[in-house]
Amino acid sequence: VGDLILSTPLINKIKDSDINAKIYLICSDRNHNIAKLYKKNNYIFDYILFDQNKSKLRNILNILKLLRNNYFDTIFTLKASNFNYFLSLILHSKYKKYIVHKNKSKNGNIRFTPPLLLIKKKKYELIDCTNEYKDSAGIHMSDHFLNLYIQSNKYTSEKYYIPEIKNETKLSDRINLSFLNKRFVIFHVDEKWNNIKNSKFIIIEIIRYFKSQLNINLLITSGLNKYIELKYIKKESNNVDNITYVDDVDIESLLYLASKASLVVTCHGALTHISAYFKTPLIDLIDENRKYFFLKWRPRIRLSKQIDYYNIKKILETINDYLRL
């Protein structure tokens, strides 16, 4: 979902240049809900889902069935892969533009995906992924996307597009909305925590901090993909007046909540970029060993920090600092 949100400055530029542009998305089924909202808001013309539960061949046949009669002006391939390159070739267009990744193979040889020999006469934007993106960390990922359309060094003001939201939430049957009338913090716990060793203890430390902060509410959210040790979260937050847990939060509700929150604490993901859109103060939890990679996806707002998820002291200090503002 984060990739799709970061592609919206590029879509904005296209729409600014041609208000009648018909924009199609080919995206994974993980992006289904937000792509549906984009279409509902007339931000895009249509979308086609790449179903990860089906074979590549079946997906190709489905895409061809839906798009074979279209002749596009430009196809932008924003996810570098040989498969996506092949997919772009079987669709008709005047221009084709690609994100290309530069990597090192296991034996130390430089390789490009897709191969430069195949696209050297076409427009492409090269991203140096070697050394965990260290040599390209200064260029934001959304700027790479924009460079496929127009070269510029001044993209810092470019905004993401977020679907319109109503001043209500679908969660009204599971959460007392008066809870949200007081200052509240979102602590998002999703499946990304499953890959973090001893994550249970980090999460519990953060929850315990808010147990002592009775002047602010904590809303613990989870998405459709679950953290495997949710029982410990529920046990820690049960019967605490200023803490509420709600699961299965859909993308529309997450948009609404992020727009109202005083602070968001989350492992790096879609909520990172949603919060940045609303300029909601943000603590973006990352793996310090991959800091250069995450710098490319960093939130572009003043009140945000990327902090290693094991640095609980700094996390709590930053929460405290942001809540005093």
Task: Give me a quick take on this structure.
The chain has 325 residues and is an alpha/beta fold. It is built from 14 helices and twelve strands.
Note the topology.
Layout: H1 2-6, H2 8-17, E1 24-28, H3 32-40, E2 46-50, H4 56-67, E3 71-77, H5 82-89, E4 92-104, E5 110-113, H6 116-119, E6 123-128, H7 130-133, H8 141-147, E7 184-188, H9 199-211, E8 217-221, H10 230-237, E9 243-246, H11 251-260, E10 263-267, H12 270-277, E11 282-286, H13 291-295, E12 304-308, H14 312-323
Parallel strand pairs: 1-2, 3-4, 4-6, 7-8, 7-10, 8-9, 10-11, 11-12
Antiparallel strand pairs: 4-5
Helix pairs in contact: 9-10
Describe the 3D structure.
By secondary structure, the protein is an alpha/beta fold. Helices cover 35% and strands 21% of the residues. A six-stranded parallel beta sheet has the order 9-8-7-10-11-12, sandwiched between helices. Strands 3, 4, 5 and 6 form a four-stranded mixed beta sheet that branches. Strands 1-2 form a two-stranded parallel ribbon. β7, α9 and β8 (217-221) form a beta-alpha-beta unit. α9 runs parallel beside α10. The longest helix has 13 residues, at 199-211. The model has no long low-confidence stretch (mean pLDDT 90).
